[in-house]
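WARN no homologs supplied; continuing
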Amino acid sequence: MITVTFNDHGFLERLPVLLSRVRNPSVLMARLGRATANNLKAHFRTKDKTPNRLGGKRTHYWRQVADSVQNPQVAEGGRTVSVSINHASIAQKLIGGEIRAKRVSFLTIPVSPDAHGRTALTFETETGLKLFFLKVGQGKTGNAVLATDRGLGIQIEYILTKSVNQDPDPTALPNMEALSVTLLSLAEKHLAQELAKATGKGGGA
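OK structure emitted
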């Protein structure tokens, strides 16, 4: 599990002060948790609207990530809240790192529109094209690929490799500064609403 903590605009200093002034901290934390979850879902759905760089079949990866955002869980007497993203590969998007072939000899990296969103196993069935192994280049600098013969020439569909190093995606999560401003504003609004209600009750007694 990856925990993301942010403190833009003194978030971690200001929020406890606000919590100490509300009647029921758990209500406020649940409200902040829902706002965070909604922000995450909106961010991921916006990312999903961007076409993939190869074109071809869409996998809608970011929509799947949006659908994996869980309901907020309030804990520690109502003073903390967590929102989980239950997608198997979101951690890889956030921190990057090496991806190695497991239970297979090679990773298949799609490099054509027809290959994108398809495994090598489903490619032939779904496209009607026959894949064959090909070595491109010489010696250690050469690449093993899976290609097709489309009649007008050979088309490389996948590059085969034992591992790849993936860079972190700096846009995987929403802007934390903007989110902290939103949450603090919501907390202050919540407190103001409580104080207004209390004042109204007192004046009518």
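Residues 99-163 form one domain.
OK
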